[in-house]
Specification:
By secondary structure, this protein is of the alpha/beta class. The chain has 16 helices and 10 strands. The chain has 2 domains: 172 residues, Periplasmic binding protein-like II (D-Maltodextrin-Binding Protein, domain 2, 3-Layer(aba) Sandwich), CATH 3.40.190; 111 residues, D-Maltodextrin-Binding Protein, domain 2 (3-Layer(aba) Sandwich), CATH 3.40.190. It is globular. The N and C termini lie far apart (63 Å).
């Protein structure tokens, strides 16, 4: 009898253990399949300077952080700011001038991740125009900038970075911001086409636009941004959002920041893999041009997405002198920019 009793209890115990294990497995499965947080990131232009965003998407870094990402490219500064203000987007991947446009209007916003912390935009000119002006990429820098006086410079949108940074460049040699004529032409494909057909004389864009038009024989990279001291340490592209959203959602902000920072590190540490991923978005660019372009601007992508006050000092200087903002800004960390969400960045 005792053996039968023990046998029955043993069977019952085993059954109970199986039930409990099943429940735990079920709960674990539910936790593993917990819904991701949906966010929208609006990007202001399709450009190589946003390489970490493309890489993070293709590597699944946003999903790994529990984010269901809606990623959109919008037409410039205005629509990106409107999307943030209207609540249809939580973050923008854009140039610092996009952030400053909001701050200048009294909108509280904050940059949380450095995407590119050196200027990446080349000053590109029509080959025919440069020959007519008698300048080449080897001419003294001052002569090349002076030659731009009166040029029709294509811009993605008036008041955007492709506009203001070119205007500021003129002031470094004693000319005025109005000594170039901005011509709205659209994104990179439209700017390259306009240059080819002579509608514009030049433009400012990140690689691979400049190297591609050089390869195609109708353009030249007249000025590299690394030739300009202020552009060497310069927060160019950032992830930013409204302060009100970020303060209410610190965990989501940290997750989005970490996804992009992780991609920065992959580009720095595994450039060949990054080139393969970027071909998915820049398939029309010659593979050799794409490879050389990433090699050229790879140092601009900061490890762990970190930014510095010195970089922001240069950004404010250029924006103030270009007329992009009306008054100076305090560049102390913790106001409208911060590294506080860039923690525990995993290996690529």
């Amino acid at each position: 009898m005792r053996r039968q009793h023990r046998s029955r209890w043993g069977a019952v115990s085993t059954a109970l253990l199986l039930v409990v294990a099943g429940v735990l497995i079920s709960v674990g499965g539910v936790q593993a399949q917990a819904p991701r947080t949906k966010i929208t990131i609006v990007q202001t232009i399709h450009a190589f300077s946003f390489a970490p965003v493309y890489v993070a998407r293709h590597k699944g870094y946003f999903e790994a952080e529990g984010i269901d990402l809606n990623w959109q490219i919008v037409a410039g500064t205005g629509p990106a700011g409107a999307a943030l203000s209207g609540g249809s987007a939580q973050f923008s991947a854009g140039a610092t001038s996009n952030l400053f446009n909001l701050l200048d209007r009294g909108v509280r916003a904050v940059a949380v991740t450095g995407i590119a912390t050196s200027m990446t935009m080349d000053t590109v000119a029509s080959k025919r125009w440069a020959e007519a002006r008698g300048v080449t990429a080897r001419s003294p820098l001052r002569e090349r900038i002076l030659a731009l006086k009166g040029a029709k410079m294509g811009v993605t949108s008036p008041g955007g970075p492709t506009d203001y940074f070119g205007r500021w460049l003129m002031t470094t040699v004693g000319l005025t911001r109005d000594d170039v004529e901005p011509v709205k032409a659209g994104g990179a494909p439209e700017l390259m086409a306009a240059l080819k057909h002579g509608t514009i004389d030049g433009f400012l864009l990140s690689p691979p636009a400049g190297p591609q038009v050089e390869r195609d024989g109708y353009g030249v990279v007249l000025i590299s941004p690394q030739e300009v001291p202020e552009f060497r340490e310069f927060v160019h592209e950032v992830l930013f959002g409204l302060t009100s959203y970020i303060e209410r959602n610190p965990q989501v902000t940290e997750q989005a920041s970490r996804a992009i920072a992780r991609a920065n590190n992959l580009i720095l540490d595994q450039p060949e893999e990054a080139k393969g991923l970027l071909r998915k978005d820049f398939g029309r660019i010659h593979p050799g041009v794409l490879s050389a372009s990433l090699d050229a601007i790879r140092p601009a992508f900061p490890r762990d997405g970190k930014m510095t006050q010195r970089q922001w000092d240069n950004v404010v200087k250029v924006h103030l002198e270009s007329g992009a903002i009306r008054k100076g800004l305090d560049t102390t960390e913790g106001g409208w920019w911060t590294n506080q969400y860039l923690r525990n960045i995993p290996n690529p």
